[in-house]
Amino acid sequence: CKDDVLALGIDKYNQECRNIVMRYSGDWRETVERIGRWIDFDNDYKTLNTSFMESVWWVFKELYERDQVYRGVKIMPFSTACTTPLSNFEASQNYKDVNDPAIVVSFPLANEPDVSLLAWTTTPWTLPSNLALCTNPDYEYIKIKDEASGQQYILLEKCLNTLYKDLKKAKYVILQKIPGKDMKGWEYIPLFEYFAPKFKGKGFVIVNDKYVTDDSGTGIVHQAPAFGEDDYRVCLENNIITEDGFLPCPVDEQGLFTSEVTDFARMHVKDADKNIQKFLKQKNRLIVQSQMMHSYPFCWRSDTPLIYKAVPSWFVRVKNIIPE
Questions:
Q1: CB atoms within 10 A of CB 158
Q2: CA-only gyration radius of the chain, Å
Q3: Measured distance CA(134)–CA(219) in Å, rounded
Q4: Could you tell me the superkingdom of the organism this chain comes from (predicted)?
Q5: How far apart are CA 240 and CA 154, in angstroms?
Q6: For residue range 55-88, what is the model confidence (pLDDT) as tens digits?
Q7: 295-317: b or e for each residue (b if 16 or more CB lie within 10 Å)?
Q8: Which residues are paired to 132 by β-bridges?
């Protein structure tokens, strides 16, 4: 404890820690050599050595001065109760079956507002940060006219059961079949206006990626790059965001919406799901509202639901030095 450290003295405390670390160094060397791993133990370095730490800082300084270091993000499992990211191993330790919202939301085309793309999600709280929609380039999508509402929708034919509870009784007409690859670049009307001005001309378009599947949802996946690994990768590859540029991430470490999301500020994201659905319903953008039981990761320490969230990290630029 702190008092013991002060009584012992910092220098003696550090030496004691070093002794603990090095306690089994001889046994480790013997074991490693016996299993045939080739390591130069006589001229090694240890991360606890001051000379090693100074070398690392020197390298970092050199990279920084050459503008080769930037602050980016990594999408990681995040505990809003402990206010800390978790490793993927930790995130896999505590899965539970839970009931979550399962909703279908409409995204009207910018040049044809009477036609809407349909996206399905179990995380309504990520919708305020939507920047794109993703289709699979190898799939064929259909444009239908729903006879009950008169609305025209685009989705996968295989996923019509997401839109209609009973396909035998469903009344719709297929108007057109569209390859997913031909939809790339289509623009749609943003669901929320929070980040629309900053991404006008770059975001709110359809992108293509083969990670989109046809086994659930609508075959169209909404992209919130701060809250999903694939979302981040796809938006980065399509130049909607950049590695060291602005990324909409309006959720703080406690899982509360920031003031950027004015309608739901200071609400915990999981609590905000209901309010967001109500908001979408008022805007006539909520097409299907249901729930589904699925397996979801929980924090093993606090036993609270995890979220996936962009966590600031330092990176070294590599692309610009590849030719050299």
A1: 14
A2: 26
A3: 8
A4: Eukaryota
A5: 23
A6: 999 999 999 999 999 988 999 999 999 999 998 8
A7: eebbbeeeebbbbbbbbeeeeee
A8: 205, 223
